[in-house]
């Protein structure tokens, strides 16, 4: 876990073009859902795909840092995340109030509160305490509602490196196995907690927005990065293994398409297994799309 490598190529993840395609499909699903297009009832699950993908990539980056540097460079990691996310967020939060003042002045009081919560990356919890529904709105939804998922990701970016570093420092020989056990344990704990909290046909804000109830997707992605890190994708698979990767990847892809088309946010099945099915399907696509010798990865 602390073995150091030198050279420029050891310090970054390999480019995986298939993941760009997966991101694009997830974005289109979310846009289609919010545009109320036909066959997009489950497009909101594109956010869950992003959670799995983020957990995979962030954990791969953290493990690469441990491999190359012997430790996680927290300052470097957090500054890199800030440079990627903050400029666009600040621009949005500067422009939106001016536009709202002209186009929707009645939203300004709540918008000020939501802006502070968005800057602190706790908007999802604010919506829980306010009981803001995601799937049903009477009147205009909050203008910054789409930032709830960014809040969850930022909370993950803050806490997860600390947990990874702690697990990596405890008994060097078995640290990765311990981290994998911790990751899967937390993922299934999140799934079980979501199951317990969900009450059929009641408001789903607590279960839908909660970091604790939505962490499973991030953690399942992290587990894949530990089991099958990107560096293993550099070697070509045997024909039989590549065929298996194709079957697994395309099976997951078509499951995702079916979920995007037909899943609905008020169904009990979504909270009693639907999110997990989405996670597993995304992992299947990731397994193939992270390689360059598969059709999903090209």
Which ranges are low-confidence, i.e. pLDDT below 50, for 5 or more consecutive residues? 1-9
Number of strands: 0
Helix residue percentage: 55-70%
Taken from the alpha-carbon principal axes, the silhouette is globular
Cα radius of gyration in angstroms: 20 Å
SSE order, one letter for each helix or strand = HHHHHHHHHHH
Structurally, the number of domains stands at 1
Give me the secondary-structure category. Answer: mainly alpha
Beta fraction of the residues? under 5%
Q: What is the residue-mean pLDDT, rounded to a whole number?
A: 91
Strand count, sense and barrel status of the largest sheet are: none
Span of the ends, CA to CA: 31 Å
Number of alpha- plus pi-helical segments: 11
What does this structure look like?
- The protein has one domain (8-78, 148-297).
- Mean pLDDT is 91; it is low at 1-9.
- It has 298 residues and is mainly α.
- The radius of gyration is 20 Å and the shape is globular.
- The protein contains eleven helices and no strands.
Topology of helices and strands:
Blueprint: H1 17-34, H2 46-69, H3 74-103, H4 108-119, H5 123-130, H6 148-169, H7 175-197, H8 205-209, H9 211-227, H10 239-262, H11 268-289
Helix pairs in contact: 1-2, 1-11, 2-6, 2-9, 2-11, 3-4, 5-6, 6-7, 6-9, 7-9, 9-11, 10-11
Structure summarized in a few sentences:
The chain has 298 residues and is mainly alpha-helical.
């Amino acid at each position: 876990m602390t073995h150091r490598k030198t050279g420029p190529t050891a310090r970054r993840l390999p480019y995986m073009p298939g993941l760009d395609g997966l991101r694009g499909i997830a974005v289109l699903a979310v846009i289609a859902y919010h545009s109320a297009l036909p066959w997009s009832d489950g497009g909101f699950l594109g956010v869950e795909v992003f959670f799995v993908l983020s957990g995979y990539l962030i954990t791969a980056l953290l493990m690469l840092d441990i491999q190359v540097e012997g430790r996680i460079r927290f300052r470097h990691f957090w500054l890199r995340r800030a440079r990627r996310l903050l400029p666009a967020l600040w621009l949005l939060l500067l422009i939106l109030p001016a536009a709202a003042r002209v186009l929707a002045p009645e939203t300004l009081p709540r918008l000020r509160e939501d802006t502070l919560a968005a800057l602190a990356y706790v908007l999802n919890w604010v919506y829980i305490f306010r009981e803001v529904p995601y799937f049903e709105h009477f009147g205009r939804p909050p203008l910054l509602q789409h930032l709830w998922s960014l809040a969850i990701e930022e909370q993950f970016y803050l806490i997860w490196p600390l947990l990874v570093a702690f697990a990596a420092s405890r008994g060097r020989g078995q640290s990765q196995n311990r981290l994998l056990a911790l990751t899967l344990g937390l993922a299934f704990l999140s799934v079980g907690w979501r199951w317990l909290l969900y009450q059929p046909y009641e408001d789903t804000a607590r279960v839908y927005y909660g970091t604790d109830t939505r962490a499973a997707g991030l953690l399942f992605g992290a587990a894949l990065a530990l089991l099958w890190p990107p560096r293993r994708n550099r070697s070509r698979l045997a024909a039989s293994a590549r065929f298996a990767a194709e079957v697994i990847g395309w099976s997951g892809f078509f499951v995702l398409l079916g979920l995007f088309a037909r899943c609905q946010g008020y169904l009990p099945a979504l909270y009693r297994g639907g999110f997990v099915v989405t996670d597993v399907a995304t992992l299947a696509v990731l397994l193939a799309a992270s390689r360059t010798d598969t059709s999903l990865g090209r």
